[in-house]
Amino acid sequence: MAADKSSPMEKSWTIFKEYHIDEDVGFALPLPLEELPHPYDAWISIARNLPELIKNNQLRVEVEKLATLSTDGLRGHKAQRLAHLVLGYITMAYVWGRGDGDIRKVLPSNIAVPYCQLSEKLGLPPILLYADCVLANWKKKDPNGPMTYENMDILFSFPGGDCGKGFFLVSLLVEIAAASAIKVIPNIFDAVQREDTDTLQKALLDISSSLREAQKAFSQIHEYVDPNLFFNVLRIYLSGWKGNPLLSEGLLYEGVWDTPKKFAGGSAAQSSIFQCFDVLLGIQHTVGGIPSDFAAEFLQEMRTYMPPAHQSFLLSLKAKPSVREFVLSKGNATLQEIYNECVEAMVSLRNYHLQIVAKYIMIPASQQSKVERSSEEASESKSKGTGGTNIMDFLKTVRGKTVNCLLKED
Ligand code: HEM
Predict the structure, then answer these.
(1) Measuring from atom 15 of ligand 1, which residue has the nearest CA?
(2) pTM flag (> 0.90)
(3) What is the 3-state secondary structure (H, E, C) of 74-126?
């Protein structure tokens, strides 16, 4: 039999395909579909006109008129992901309505039944996810043009003008920038296995430089996302029904379950990017594999909102030899310094993210409560993220664990 002459990189693409990771866009869905065949086009046309239908108070009427469709005709992963995205948008719009407090606690069976069937097929929860509104909600304007903000658009919008486009596309651009760091992962494990320090150093340098590029991509948020629109409009449509006092019992999926179910809202905490590099670098949020505090539990729970292939990828990384232990065992100052550059890039991303959260959530929330002395219930919900977390405590704990991972000089 001829020897397998393929390089670790070539072999890795076969593995990455299994984990639904793309060479160019990483965890994002490559070239998402934009249309569904009849009769599912009825869902698309509602989702495409969402802001207008909400404004005219027609959204709920139109949703209630929809036929209950079987999901058997949705063939292929991309069609199913598009349907999950579209039903997610429709569900959020149906529940939160005009975002003025007139909410619905029951999702009618004509949407709930296909949505839950499809979610089960995909192994995803029946709520709008990061995997929907960021990873599967994009297109290039000029197909031959670059993957830049200017040449990209989202497929579906919420009220709030271009705020949603800004938030979703900037998140996607962070994913894409980090995709070049994912590529290097097979080289890292190959180098560790062969005890090849030079190759490992080079691969770690590639990772820290891609993570710095990801932070540059992140900085575009200031240009494209308005804090007041984000806080007062978009955030409402991304809110879930877990830890949310506005829907404290959860949402009743009519015709599916007899009791309401609780699911967290759409948040970039469901991105696999940060968790992927945490695992790779040995940044531990758990003790002996068990979540040690609320933050660790939340991050672990967020994995259940990721596509199953990405969850499996994170588990497969965890099962590999520890890069951190290898670096420690070598006692090589340069290697430790280069490893620390990667951890520092993660600390820097998390510091940057904390500033963004202060600007986009904490400041608008405090301004609002100065104007109106809001009810206890409303102010409680404002200090929480879309996933229902106590935001700043959570983010600072996660950053603290990242800082603790820096290797100290003896
Ligand atoms: C306006 C912009 C943003 C705001 C207001 C924001 C807000 C938040 C909030 C409130 C949380 C806490 C979890 C929750 O309750 O959902 C969170 C977590 C998180 N966000 Fe963001 N986020 C923004 C942009 C992004 C972007 C662009 C990314 C990267 C793609 C990102 C990645 C994360 C991650 C990974 C976590 C989990 C905590 C961690 O691992 O450090 N966020 N974000």
Answers:
(1) 385
(2) yes
(3) CCCHHHHHHHHHHHHHHHHHHHHCCCCCCCCCEECHHHHHHHHHHHHHHCCCC
